[in-house]
Design goal:
Blueprint (H helix, E strand, L loop, with lengths): L1 H17 L18 H10 L6 H4 L10 E6 L2 H12 L6 H29 L7 H10 L2 E7 L2 H4 L4 E5 L10 E6 L4 E7 L4 E5 L6 E2 L2 E3 L2 E7 L6 E7 L2 E3 L4 E2 L1 H12 L9 H8 E2 L3 E5 L3 E4 L1
Antiparallel strand pairs: 1-2, 2-5, 3-6, 4-5, 6-14, 7-13, 8-9, 9-10, 11-12, 14-15
Helix pairs in contact: 2-5, 4-5, 5-6
Length: 292
Amino acid sequence: MTNSWYRAQEGGASFFAFSPDPAPGRDGGPADDGFSQMHREMAAMALLYDIPFSYLVPAEGMLEPEEVRFFHLDPNWIRALLDGAFSIGRNVGVDTANDSAYLEGVYDKAMAAGLSVRLRLQGKPDLPVLKAVRLAKSSPCTGFLLRSELVSGWRGLEFNAYGDREGTDPLPALRLETLSDEVLIGLYQGVIARLDIQQPPEGFHFGFNSTDGKLSKRLRSLSTGALDDGRAEIPIRRRGNRVVDFADIAAAIGKELGMAPGETVTSAHLALQMIQNPHRIVIRIGEGDEQS
């Protein structure tokens, strides 16, 4: 009987010896950041990973096509979510009492660990535990759901959230992920007052405007680079081949800028005036949309 028990234990030991170590986090990163595996899994759950979409948007009419909806992450809802995860191991009433006393600390640690989930996915170092806990407690978590053709049609769009309408208080992103071809979710630490959606910097290019069949370019100040009211006409050399005449464009730009007859419009002047900024949409909560 004893030998049989030993042989069974030896078989179990061999199984564990050849089994891979438990994954330290969702992304397989190092586990020495001060958070346990449980805290990291709870953090992912608190950031709505693996949560059925019907829990987030119960009815399709709540998120119409070409619409963005903002929300606050309800702490009580997240606590109930984590409590449900904990309930799997409950057998007797005393487990419920123990979980109730333990859950609040797990919630704080999970929300703090959530600040590092995106950093880990980007290969960046985690926030220190104490700093993460303080930051998680100091401000709520808010986010947005975007349903639009932008999600699949314009890859690489940048989403920047701010805690003020002027765009001087950037909020750290906790999660920014596409849920489908047309739905994207964003979560940020802090209350979103402004959201900028813009093309990536590599979207810079030469361009001009077309009005009533005529091409023109709004000019920039040579001292500040800001757009002015002046416009220069864009001459076409061969319309069929879509070729513009840069020599005539330079002359038109120099004339509109009031440059002296002896001054030459250089390639630097031409680049400054012809550059076309990537498109950007600025959404200020409660104030409508502003596109620039």
